[in-house]
Write a structure and sequence with these properties.
alpha+beta, Translation Initiation Factor IF3, four-stranded mixed β-sheet, Ribosome assembly RNA-binding protein YhbY
Length: about 100
């Protein structure tokens, strides 16, 4: 579980990161979760954007992505989700 200070720090790092995944009308699936897990192992901090044709609630999508990928939900702002998971082999981010 991340503290408020850690989430604030991760939000500042994520500000300049571009979304690398999109959730569309198909919603979330196992293949998307697998790709997110792989990206989190390499990058630790990623953004996921939700397209306008996605009919699911953005907070439900964010919770599902975080829980199924084992990541921490840092932020949901607009239609953008920020996820963090500490990498086992490629650790780059030192949390305060």
């Amino acid at each position: 579980m991340l503290t408020g200070k850690q989430k604030r720090y991760l939000r500042s790092l994520a500000h300049h990161v571009q979304p690398i995944f999109q959730v569309g009308k198909g919603g979330t699936n196992d293949q998307l979760i697998r790709h997110i897990e792989e990206a989190l192992e390499v990058r630790e901090l990623i953004k996921v954007s939700i397209l306008n044709n996605c009919m699911d609630d953005r907070f439900e999508v964010a919770d599902e992505l975080a829980s199924r990928s084992g990541a921490e939900l840092v932020q949901v702002i607009g239609k953008t989700i920020v996820l963090y998971k500490e990498s086992a082999e490629h650790k780059q981010i030192e949390l305060p």
